[in-house]
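User: Could you go from structure to sequence for me? I need the amino acid at each position, not a summary. Structure tokens:
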């Protein structure tokens, strides 16, 4: 199974829950608006899903094009656009594999938001994506990659226990959903094996369980710089949070800004 197939199956399975579970995931949105003001549009978003980032940027007046493998996530994004006449001329969603998709133009700003590059489960595929995107970069284009800080994650203890992540209401049914996870780290291969478990409490009191496994690959800071360099990019900034503070030991995020060579 390829990385893109695995990712598509995962997000198709959990699409109905995604927006509700990530309702509070907004900390990065202001950063992308600031970068869009600095570097311009149209903007290309890799792994756009149901439009969390794209629709926010379009609401601020920026033209955005997003690609994703999940038809279910894209359907939800397109439905949201239908309800916003002011966004219809600003947002385009494409279904396809970001590793090979023939994007229609070159872009001054390309985003790989929240953990998306980790879905390329091998270093080879992570490099392949960055190299492919370089072909669609306008002169001096900027690329923004947002990842968790691998060092902080690897310092934690993973014991394969079930953890309750959050509870939320699924808006279409009104049902309570309890989201749980089981994590294990392969530190030698820089891989996180995570199984998401969604227990939806149905109206009659029964439980509908959705089990969605996912494989993610961590990238360390020095490795990130090398991946960018061999893919036709040069890292120009490195932040440790969405307020653009410098990356240092103890930061939870690794946000790299690179320029096309």
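Assistant: Here is the amino acid at each position, in order:
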């Amino acid at each position: 199974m390829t990385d893109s197939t695995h990712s598509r199956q995962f997000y198709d399975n959990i699409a109905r829950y995604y927006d509700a579970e990530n309702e509070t995931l907004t900390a990065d949105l202001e950063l992308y608006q600031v970068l869009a003001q600095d570097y311009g549009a149209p903007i290309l978003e890799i792994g756009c899903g149901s439009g969390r980032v794209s629709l926010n940027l379009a609401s601020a007046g920026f033209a955005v094009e997003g690609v994703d493998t999940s038809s279910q996530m894209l359907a939800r994004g397109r439905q949201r656009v239908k309800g916003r006449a002011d966004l219809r001329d600003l947002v385009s969603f494409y279904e396809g594999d970001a590793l090979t998709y023939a994007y229609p133009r070159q872009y001054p700003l390309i985003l790989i938001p929240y953990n998306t590059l980790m879905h390329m489960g091998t270093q080879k595929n992570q490099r392949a994506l960055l190299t492919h995107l370089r072909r669609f970069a306008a002169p001096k284009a900027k690329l923004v990659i947002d990842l968790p800080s691998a060092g902080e994650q690897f310092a934690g203890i993973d014991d394969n226990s079930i953890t309750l992540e959050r509870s939320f209401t699924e808006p279409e049914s009104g049902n309570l959903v309890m989201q749980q996870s089981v994590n294990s780290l392969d530190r030698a291969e820089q891989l996180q094996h995570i199984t998401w478990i969604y227990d939806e409490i149905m109206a009659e009191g029964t439980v509908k369980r959705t089990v969605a496994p996912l494989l993610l690959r961590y990238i360390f800071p020095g490795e990130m710089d090398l991946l960018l360099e061999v893919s036709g990019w040069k890292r120009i900034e490195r932040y440790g949070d969405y307020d653009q503070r410098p990356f240092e030991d103890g930061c939870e995020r690794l946000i790299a800004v690179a320029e096309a060579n």
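One structural detail worth keeping in mind: The CA atoms of residues 75 and 230 lie 35 Å apart.
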